Each structure stands twice: as structure tokens, then as C-alpha cells.
């Protein structure tokens, strides 16, 4: 266990590093970071919160994930930087799922690399680019994705497909079901 003196020296060293500076000027930002949201919240819950709080001009809601698990944070994008102060004021100290949330203006989140089509997603998974971190866990398809973990490492996609054949899975390109195995 580290002593108090060691902990303090780590804190002093951490303070000496330059902090990342914002790339967007505060009056040009279009994103709001909402913290302390329930981990069970959905984008539709956040849109309902915006409507209830009279926060207008919201164009997009993205939940933040850490390894495909909700982090309790979300980004809300407004249409124009001019609308940011009024939207931020409307969302201050709002309640979602019985929890008090906090909102701040932030730079846009790092967007995941583009991966077009089933082949592009499979290639990105092979190269380790899909990590499940960031807005919408770094994947597309607007919440129509399912992540399964705890499966044996040697299981094949065909085995999983056989286990799930009694369920109706949404098709993607040309009605083909898509399955990507990620090494975590």
C-alpha cells in the first residue's frame, strides 16, 4: 500500500503535466455532456428528458460506453452553437430515473473510425478497432446491436447463430444477419 507521502508526490507530478485544452471555443461548441445518468437509460429516455425540460434544438443523443457497458454519461448535440446556452440551462439539475444529473458544455467526443458494411466491421474487429468505448460504443445501427460476453473463447459464430435461431434477429444488408466476434 502506498504511503500518504507517495500519494501526494503522485498528485503533484500529475498536476505538473499540461492538461488537454479545448479545441473548440466555448461559443462554437454544440455538445453537452450529461453525467450521473442511470446505467439503464436509453437514448429515448434522454430525448424524453430534453422534451420534459423544454430543451429544444437537440439533434442527437449518444450514450457513452466503456467496453460495451454504459458509463453513466451521454452527449447531447444541439443544432447550432447559438442554442447551447439555453439548452444547457434547461438541462441543469434535471432528474432522470430518480437521479439528479449534471450537465456541462464539452467538445465533441472522439468519433469511432468508420467501418462500412459487414466486411468493414469484420475487418475492424479483426484489427482490434472495435473496443466498445466512446459514443454509442463505437458501433453504428442506432441501438440495434447486442453484445454477448462470457461465452467460451473457442465458440464459433455458427454455434452462436444456432443457439439464437429461435429468436428473430433484425437483418442488415440484404436481409443477412451480421455477427462479429471481438477479442477482448
TrEMBL record:
<dbReference type="GO" id="GO:0003676">
    <property type="term" value="F:nucleic acid binding"/>
</dbReference>
<feature type="compositionally biased region" description="Low complexity">
    <location>
        <begin position="9"/>
        <end position="21"/>
    </location>
</feature>
<feature type="region of interest" description="Disordered">
    <location>
        <begin position="96"/>
        <end position="124"/>
    </location>
</feature>
<feature type="region of interest" description="Disordered">
    <location>
        <begin position="1"/>
        <end position="28"/>
    </location>
</feature>
<dbReference type="InterPro" id="IPR035979">
    <property type="entry name" value="RBD_domain_sf"/>
</dbReference>
<protein>
    <recommendedName>
        <fullName>RRM domain-containing protein</fullName>
    </recommendedName>
</protein>
<feature type="compositionally biased region" description="Polar residues">
    <location>
        <begin position="96"/>
        <end position="107"/>
    </location>
</feature>
Amino acid at each position: 500500500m502506498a504511503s500518504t507521502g507517495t500519494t501526494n508526490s503522485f498528485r503533484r507530478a500529475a498536476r505538473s503535466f499540461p492538461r488537454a485544452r479545448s479545441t473548440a471555443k466555448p461559443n462554437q461548441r454544440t455538445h453537452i455532456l450529461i453525467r450521473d445518468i442511470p446505467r439503464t437509460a436509453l437514448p429515448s429516455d434522454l430525448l424524453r428528458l430534453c422534451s420534459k425540460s423544454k430543451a429544444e434544438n437537440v439533434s442527437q443523443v449518444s450514450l457513452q460506453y466503456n467496453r460495451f457497458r454504459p458509463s453513466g454519461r451521454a452527449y447531447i448535440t444541439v443544432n447550432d452553437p447559438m442554442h447551447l446556452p439555453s439548452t444547457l440551462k434547461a438541462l441543469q439539475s434535471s432528474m432522470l430515473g430518480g437521479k439528479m444529473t449534471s450537465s456541462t458544455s464539452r467538445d465533441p467526443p472522439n468519433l469511432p473510425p468508420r467501418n462500412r458494411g459487414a466486411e468493414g466491421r469484420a475487418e475492424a474487429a479483426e484489427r482490434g478497432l472495435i473496443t466498445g468505448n466512446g459514443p454509442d460504443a463505437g458501433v453504428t445501427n442506432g441501438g440495434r446491436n447486442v453484445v454477448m460476453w462470457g461465452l467460451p473463447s473457442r465458440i464459433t459464430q455458427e454455434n452462436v447463430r444456432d443457439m439464437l435461431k429461435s429468436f428473430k434477429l433484425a437483418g442488415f444488408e440484404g436481409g443477412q444477419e451480421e455477427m462479429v466476434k471481438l477479442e477482448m
